[in-house]
Amino acid sequence: MPESSVTLGALKSTPFSEQRMAERSVKEELRQNLICKLQRGEDLFPGVVGYEDTVIPQIVNAVLSRHNFILLGLRGQAKTRIIRMLTSLLDERLPYVAGCEIRDNPYRPICKRCRDLIQAKGDETPIAWLNREARYVEKLATPDVTIADMIGDIDPIKAARSGQDLSNEHTVHYGLLPRANRGIFAINELPDLAGKIQVGLFNIMQEGDVQIKGYPVRLPLDILLVFTANPEDYTARGKIITPLKDRIGSEIRTHYPMTIEQGLAITKQESWTERESPLRLESPNYIREVVEQLAFLAREDKKVDKRSGVSQRLPISVLENVISNAERRALKAGENVAAPRILDVYAALPSITGKLELEYEGELKGGDNVARELIRAAVGKVYSNYFDGVNVSQIVQWFELGGSLKLDETVDSAALVAQLAKIQGLMDKTAALGLKAGDPDAVRASAAEFILEGLYAHRRISRNEEVGFTAGERKREPPPEGGEGRRPPKRQFN
Known about the structure:
The chain is of the alpha/beta class. It has two domains: 8-253, Rossmann fold (3-Layer(aba) Sandwich), CATH 3.40.50.300; 260-471. Helix content is 43%, strand content 12%. The protein is built from 24 helices and 15 strands. It has helices at residues 8-11, 18-23, 26-40, 55-64, 79-84, 112-121, 147-150, 156-162, 176-179, 195-199, 202-206, 231-236, 242-247, 260-270, 285-300, 313-333, 342-347, 350-353, 360-365, 367-387, 393-400, 413-421, 426-429, 441-457; strands spanning 69-72, 93-97, 127-131, 136-140, 152-154, 172-174, 183-188, 210-211, 218-219, 223-229, 250-253, 280-281, 337-338, 461-464, 468-471. The protein has a five-stranded parallel sheet. Helix 14 (260-270) crosses helix 16 (313-333), helix 20 (367-387) crosses helix 24 (441-457) and helix 22 (413-421) packs across helix 24. The longest helix has 21 residues, at 313-333.
């Protein structure tokens, strides 16, 4: 649309004709643009991984049905990202009456100020343009939100400045909902909105209008309403009043990644790992898999509160912390390459414990201990993927014959590899992790340590803070019948 078309008269001779704008509501606009994207085979939500066959088809159905909808899911499931991406389905630009607080349709103004302006100026009424980002309004629901915040109220200061009587419609202060007119209005964490405020949403969802407090006038807003909520708050605690739930067209459930591969893709996409550094940062796949597996195990662990969930932000934050610890170690040692080790995953405990809501059993055990158990279990699972069926008895035998190794974080990688090479057969097994001749010492040390940690996770060897890796504790054989440890039979007395 050319910039010279800045009046209502000029607008009438453009594609934004009165008939077209009268027939094209926001929901119809979203529907038509979505149909075009589907016909062209475009990616509707780029960067959203794992929802291609589950959530996204349901959102498409809701938009095609012109529904207001809600995304139900635990924290860290990309709900907010998705609703913000709905703006890509809006037109690039939209005309409105210049200066209007609620972005009035030039052909069908609903506010007193615009009706008076168009009546006075006619085709000379100035027109401004909205871009698609300006047509999205988002509000985080909190208990202190008022009707005035959401809908509007009388503004005595505006009345005093304009010299108007309080009964005049010009003294209205519009809330967030009217200011989202002709766009998308999103409410995050809907259950936290007070019940009386939820009642205020009835009319806009059912009748398509709102009533400003103190005025016998209703505003027929053109708007799409989308919400997000935690399923526990939504269904079990009764925080959303039933009439409002009934007026929401589609209820769409989000979820965490269903496979490790999906989780790895999300974490790689969202984490800050490709960073500027004086070192070359190498992030082995098995370390990334351990970090991702950690989140999957936490979501299944009985000591972790499933109602709160384990956000996908956990593996993202942990991986960033793991790489940073490896970077710190390499800088202190004066090395050129930094490669994370399992040691660095344990060092990332602060980025784990803060994201786990524990059940009573977990609270008794302590957040650090729960996190350490999860790391050990994650290492064991990933180790099995690489070394299932591989003969590692030679390594275990080295420890059983009295060998021990304590890994010192301050030792440089070359010295550490020299220590690890003393363990018979250990460095040969690193080939299963994709290592090749000529790989940096930091990468070789990381791979060898992972193998030892895997053996420890499977209880083939032991590890403690004082000695380091040692031989595993042998299982005690049951005492022979009648031998030591057998309780003597009770004597019978007649």
